[in-house]
Design a protein that fits this description.
This protein folds into two domains: 8-136 and 243-268, 3-Layer(aba) Sandwich (Rossmann fold), CATH 3.40.50; 138-240 and 272-297, Response regulator (Rossmann fold, 3-Layer(aba) Sandwich), CATH 3.40.50.2300. α1 (58-71) packs parallel to α6 (242-254), α3 packs parallel to α4 and α3 packs antiparallel against α7. The strands form two sheets. The protein has an eight-stranded mixed β-sheet. Strands 9-8-10-11-12-14 form a six-stranded mixed β-sheet, with helices on one face. By secondary structure, it is an alpha/beta fold. The chain has seven helices and 14 strands.
Length: 306
């Protein structure tokens, strides 16, 4: 069951932004980063500052800059792969992709410098390191995909391909489908192309490889934009959103907390849903946004709760 508390896993682990009642969340104006080569940042005696990996996604960059502006922390941007052996003076922390951070010299891992790793595969959290992912709240992702499928179907016939990483995703998906379309019928398929007559929406479970090209039904997918590029019609995509959890992670470290492993969950803004208005009308999308808001607030639970 999902609780209203934040999903943070301490010590070892780790479509449009969903906003309350369908309104887009306000975007903070980004603060221009100071683009400097790491190698030229001389050691100084001054206020602490934050170094941002030039390789991070624009959404993450904007979120970091907005947080730093509110905190009063200077942000400088650089290619971490060109870093010198010793870190620059007064550097408080580094935000970057795993590949860039893993390339830093050993001296960057010691001392008081904190790190925030975006969607890592190998790097783990420690006392000075917070990771954004890779863990995903599978039940929440399943619920949002199921709700989106129920709102996208016009016939009430929905197919599903794959089972996700475990029972949590499938349970969440079925609950989401019942939430938005109580009378919908669900069929399990091997491929979207095998959808029977009248099945107009097919959900693809996370980690499931399918051939999207030429599929007739609308697809509901997880975190993979390749479906649309391959010719598949994507009604909704639930994706991991590191830009939603990077600011809370930085705030915790700035406040003196130890590094943490942050999961991609609805509560922290780490899961967002993007929709195609041709598949899900604005009126129906509002129902999806309300469900997401209630899920994040704990008023709606997955796995047998209210």
């Amino acid at each position: 069951m999902i609780s209203a508390s934040h999903r943070r896993i301490f010590g070892g682990l780790a479509l449009v932004t969903l906003a309350a009642c369908g309104a887009p969340r306000p975007q903070a104006s980004p603060v221009p980063a100071t683009a400097i080569p790491v190698a030229t940042a001389a050691a100084t005696s001054g206020p602490p500052w934050l170094l941002l990996d030039a390789a991070v996604a624009p959404e993450v960059r904007q979120a970091v800059q907005a947080w730093a502006s509110q905190t009063g922390l200077e942000v400088r941007e650089a290619d971490l792969r060109q870093a010198e052996r010793q870190p620059p003076g007064d550097l408080w922390g580094v935000v970057g992709e795993e590949e860039s951070l893993a390339s830093l010299p050993a001296a960057w891992s010691g001392g008081s410098i904190v790190r925030v790793v975006v969607d890592p595969v190998r790097l783990a959290s420690d006392a000075r390191t917070s990771t954004l992912g890779p863990e995903v709240a599978e039940d929440e992702a399943g619920f949002l995909m199921g709700a989106a499928a129920g709102l996208a179907t016009g016939t009430g016939l929905v197919g599903v391909v794959g089972a996700g990483q475990g029972e949590a995703w499938r349970e969440g998906f079925e609950e989401g489908l019942r939430y938005s379309c109580p009378k919908c019928r669900l069929d399990t398929l091997a491929e979207p192309s095998q959808a029977g007559f009248g099945t107009d929406v097919v959900a693809v479970a996370p980690g499931t490889a399918v051939e999207a090209e030429g599929t007739a039904p609308w697809l509901v997918v997880f975190d993979d934009p390749a479906f649309a590029a391959a010719g598949g019609r994507v009604a909704a995509r639930v994706r991991k959103a590191p830009e939603g959890i990077v600011a809370p992670a930085l705030g915790r470290l700035w406040g003196g907390a130890s590094g943490e492993a942050w999961a991609f969950s609805v509560e922290d803004g780490g899961l967002v849903t993007e929709v195609d208005a041709q598949a899900i009308s604005p009126g129906r999308e509002r129902l999806l946004r309300e469900a997401e808001q209630n899920l994040a607030a704990g008023w709606l639970t997955v796995g047998g709760g209210g």
